[in-house]
Design goal:
Structural class: mainly alpha
Helix content: 40-55%
Number of strands: 0
Order of helices and strands: HHHHHHHHH
Radius of gyration: 31 Å
Shape: elongated
């Protein structure tokens, strides 16, 4: 082999069942990632080069080779996406319950000189008294929303001391 020549890589011989399954997934697959990988294998089975497959399907040649090798080693399971499930919850159910219970209590009943909770005040009490090392205000809002509670910012206004206030403002 001369320098610069690239060896051709093709998928191994497919069984009738594999070929049927791959064609079905490639044409009608609901999982896009799995369908595109199946298209790579179907194309390789028709002796299409790695370079041509990569250009048509938008994969890099290296990724096409990896898909073919995975199929050759493990069959259809080798190209099936393996989703990991995401990040684990930061707060336990016990901590979430503590947030909801605290928000449901009146601050004066717990000895705080407040007429109602603000997210900042809830945050301070949760960190100081409930054993939560840190919790953000948006996280508190999310936990309350998931529990069916909604927090709305307090709207305040000031009354004027001017005896002519209502006349001036048409009240």
């Amino acid at each position: 082999m001369r320098k610069g020549d690239i060896m051709s890589l093709y998928v191994r011989s497919l069984t009738f069942e594999e070929e049927s399954d791959l064609n079905d997934v490639a044409r009608n697959g609901t999982d896009v990632k799995f369908a595109r990988r199946a298209q790579v294998i179907v194309s390789s089975n028709t002796q299409t080069s790695v370079k041509q497959i990569s250009q048509v399907l938008g994969y890099s040649p290296l990724q096409v080779r990896r898909i073919i090798h995975a199929f050759n080693e493990r069959g259809i399971d080798g190209i099936r996406p393996n989703y990991q499930g995401g990040r684990h919850p930061t707060f336990t159910d016990k901590q979430r319950t503590a947030v909801v219970e605290l928000a449901g209590c009146h601050p004066k009943d717990l000895g705080y000189p407040l007429s109602q909770w603000s997210l900042s005040q809830l945050q301070l009490v949760l960190i100081k008294k409930k054993g939560i090392s840190y919790i953000s205000r948006p996280t508190i809002r999310t936990i309350l929303k998931e529990a069916g509670l909604s927090y709305q910012r307090t709207k305040t206004w000031k009354h004027s001391n001017d005896p002519q206030f209502s006349k001036k403002n048409d009240l």
